[in-house]
Amino acid sequence: MPTSTLISDFKKNNVSASWAKGHPMQWGTEDAKFEYPLPPSAYQIGAGLSLDEKLLAMVNDTHVKIISIDNNATVTTTRVPFAGDLEAVAIVTSPLGGYDFLVSASNYSTNTDAVLQTRLSTNGTLASGKWTQYRGQWSDIDDQPFSKTYRRFFATIRESGVTDVPVYVYSLDSPDSNVTLKGHTDWVVSEAFSPDGSYISTAAWDGTGKLWNAKTGALLHTWGPFTGTYGPNNTTYTYQNWLTNFSPDGKYVLLSIGAGSNTRVNIYPLAALNNSNAEAGQSIDEPILSLRGWSNWVRSAAWSPDSSTLALGESGLIVVHSFKENKFVQRWEAEDKTNEARGLTFFNEGKVLAYRVGAGLEAYGLETNLKYRWGPGDYDRYDGGGLNIWWLRTKGWIGGVEADLKVRFWKAPV
User: Fold this and answer.
1) What is the DSSP string of 335-380?
2) What pLDDT, on a 0 to 100 scale, did the predictor assign at position 107?
C-alpha cells in the first residue's frame, strides 16, 4: 500500500518508531464504514460528528443524510436550501435539547457564501423544516470555527477585490450579541476563540494578525503587516498569513506567517496585552518564540492538552516543539514534499498525535513509540486526501472522511 519514503521518522530515546501490530492497514479492514447519500464529488462533500458521538451527518451537493452511529441506521434525509460547494458540516448540542445542525457552503458562480442552520431532535430527525441563513462561510484552514461552548461561531467572506473584509461572529442563542470584526483588507483565512471566550485572533492575507475583544468586537492589537522583498530591485510585498490559534491554557497566541523560506511561526504572550500581568520584559508585539527554517507555509498546528508541546505541519514535514526543553523533540520528514501534513490533532490526553499525509490517516504514540496508518491499498482508487480526523471515545474509534470519499473508523491507538 502507498506509504511515505522517509528522510526522518518519529523517535523515542533515539530509537525510530516501529509499526504497531497489523499496520499499515488498508481500506476494507475498518470497524465501520458509512456511505454518502449520492455518488459524491470531491468538491461538494462535508461530514460532521455530533459532540456526543451519537450522530454522523454526511452531505454532498445539497443532499443530507443523518446516521445513527450506534446502529448505522439512517434517521434523516433532507436537502440544504443552498446550491454551492460545501465547505464543512457540524452538529452541536443545543441547550434546548436536541442539536443544531450547520452547513457552510459557497457558490462561486454567484460569489455568495452562507452558513445554514436547522434544528434536529434528540434522535437526529428534523425538529422543523426551518433553515436560518448566516452570511459568510467557515475557513478552509480551521478545523474548529466554534467557541469552546459551541454556541458562537465565525464566518467570513471570500470575494475578490474586496478591501474591507469583515469577520462575522454569530451566536446560536442570542442574535443581539452578534458582532462584526472590521479591519482586515484581504481574505481572512483563520480565526480562533481563546479558551475562555474573551478574545478572538485572526490571520489574513493582508499580512496582519489581529486580536479582538470577543464580546464587543473591538480591535485590541495588530501584528504586522509582515512584508518581504524580492527581485533585483528589492520590491516589497506583503506576506500571506495562514493560521492562528490559542494554547489550551490561554497564555499564548500562535500566528503562522508567510510562505516558502520566509515562513515563520510566532508565539505571542497574551498576558502582555495587559502589562500588569506580563512577565518581566514581555511585550505583546514581540514573540516569545519565532520558529523558522520552513520550506513552505505552515497551515496545521496542534497544542498538547497541557500546552507543553506544539506540533506543526507543512509539505512532507511534521515537527513537535517542547516548550520545557525549548527545542524540537520530534521530526517526521518524507522525501515527497507534494503532500501537505494536515489535520494535526492530539488525542488520548496528548499521548497520540494523529494527522493526514496524502491519502492516508496516520498516528504516532509518543509514549509507545508505535506508528499507525490506515489508507488505500495498491489498487484502490481515490482523489486527493481525506477530511476530518475524529476520535470516538465511546467506541474507541479513529477515522474520518477518507480519500475515496467514504467515512471509515478503525480501532484507535491507546
Assistant:
1) S--SSBPEEEEEETTTTEEEEEETTEEEEEETTT-EEEEEE--TT-
2) 84
